[in-house]
Amino acid sequence: MSRHLVCLTFDFDTTSLFTASGLTSPSALSRGEFGALASRRILDLLHRYGLRATWFVPGHTIMSFPREFTAVVEAGHEIANHGFTHRSMAQLGRDEQEQELLDANALIRQHTGADPVGFRAPGWELAEQTVPLLIEHGFQYDSSMMASDHQPYFARVGDHVDPRGIRFGTPSPLVEVPVSWSLDDFPVFEFWPTDGGVIPGLRSTAEVEANWFDDFEYLRRSVPWGVLVLTLHPFVIGRGHRMLMLERLIVRLLNAGAVFTPIHEAVREWQGDQR
């Protein structure tokens, strides 16, 4: 029987994305603060359609916006680890990475009563030590890599990079639930000056909606079982015209047979098929 899953995932970064980038002016922080306001809109939308999502939450957000975080927890959504300070794991040493994981886990456990089973690296940047650390600390899945589109796979450890080629390591027990920049709201919508230029963003919602729906349509036509992961940021997707787009997309996907589920349930379903 065909079954095609969609995971709505929300990187609830709020101000942590800006502080980790060294942007601490009132104007910069206000952009992240809007994500706290927008989280309520998103929760209302998900409630109206009876959908459960996965929220990747940095410890920084839990500390800064406890009321908004508690609302997500009380709405019954999956809470997953997104580090503590939103710093790139690729720029941290092993001990610093571990501390990011453990500090965020402790806060999530304090508010939910359980350790998270999933992780997403800030900026999707993993380091060589990250996967072994996730395994060591009991995580079941990561959602930061892009070696597939519709099928989860087991993350490898021990890859050796050489200018003449890569010697691939061995699969680990950690399930990788793949993502894509083309299914992320930040690059298409968010205006972002950088040292190397400007990410213009501000794309038409109609264009983005069409792209995202077509990715699901390709999934539906191509495989009997698969999962499409959308990566959304409340301070980005929460603007009015984008919220209308998100609702239209949800309706179209439901009418096309999509089954919405948090990532941890998609992982459990995939693992069952592997037996």
TrEMBL record:
It comes from the Bacteria. CDD domains: CE4_HpPgdA_like. One of its GO terms (biological process) is carbohydrate metabolic process. Residues 19-275 form the NodB homology domain. One of its GO terms (molecular function) is hydrolase activity, acting on carbon-nitrogen (but not peptide) bonds. SUPFAM superfamilies: Glycoside hydrolase/deacetylase (SSF88713). It holds the Pfam family Polysacc_deac_1. PANTHER family: POLYSACCHARIDE DEACETYLASE FAMILY PROTEIN (AFU_ORTHOLOGUE AFUA_6G05030) (PTHR47561:SF1). This is NodB homology domain-containing protein. It comes from Dactylosporangium sucinum. The lineage of its organism: Bacteria, Bacillati, Actinomycetota, Actinomycetes, Micromonosporales.
